[in-house]
From TrEMBL:
Organism of provenance: Falco tinnunculus (Common kestrel)
SMART domains: S_TKc
Protein name per the record: Ribosomal protein S6 kinase related
Domain spans labelled Protein kinase: 35-288
Keyword Nucleotide-binding: yes
Keyword set, alphabetical order: ATP-binding, Kinase, Nucleotide-binding, Serine/threonine-protein kinase, Transferase
Amino acid sequence: RCWAEPPLPGWPLPQLVSLFLPEFPVRPSARQQQLKILGFVAKGSFGTILKVLDCGREKVCAVKVMPKVEVLRRDTLKQCKEEVSIQRQVRHPFVHGLGDSWQGQRHLFIMCTYCSTGDLHALWRAAGCFAEATVRLFAAELVLVLVYLHDLGIMHRDVKMENILLDERGHLKLTDFGLSRHLQWGERAHTICGTLQYMAPEVLSGGPYSHAADWWSLGVLLFALASGEFPVAPAGDHVAMLERVKQSSYESPPTFSPALARLLAELLCHNPLHRLRYLHHFQGHPFFHGVAFDADLLQKDPVAVAVAPCPPEQPPPDLATFADFDYDLATPPGRPWPG
């Protein structure tokens, strides 16, 4: 698609657009001139993630670029608004926070801090599995994040290794709130969404389900971290995956300590009402003996991130700043978008 094409009918209408999309305001073009595109990080159905240098703050950031036409075609506008709304609401040391969000004539943009150390999945694949002492610290950080989100009425719905970044000291940063939603206590969801291997049985069956589904996902994640493999092999669709989940006993390997095996049994419980979910459940659990669920966690370095492979980056595109493509609502740019 070439940005030299005629502007959309009725454009520019920045005030009107901002009125209907307050989560994605229109930014002054002078501000965007300070954003230099360094290259691609990833590309998927959600759009493209770019590595960007904020010259004004001398800081490297990651920007998710979502074509409006795809957002409308997939009927995910409400979810995009919810994603930004949730990320503006949450402030937690183990959450990858929102830096900014804005819109152009044809794209929506979400900017966050760039994590050069990669994600937990890349580190797990390089390591094979982790010692229980490391799993314990990772688990404690994720417990604090999920309790925090659930207390705000937020269900993440896609807790998995690929959505957990690492900072330079090895602490976790939960990211990608694209499937998250506000869900008050007593309310239930029915949408089948997430990643098949991490989905709770009540999600795979089409609901109703609630925040307890996140705890199941945590159980799957911890099982994989400690053993090097997932408790259930992947299936092609949610129906086949549900059958595999129903038939699995989720027995822990003999190499797991009794405390870890008990924790996983209490997370990977088919009845969501019987799963661990409250902070005091974890604080008093044998697996977390000696772990302080407070700021002291930040003083411990869970793992050396030097062994974590950095995410692959593509060569920089033929774009220097955001002014070189779709940003300014008043002036449609004239360069093609690569790819």
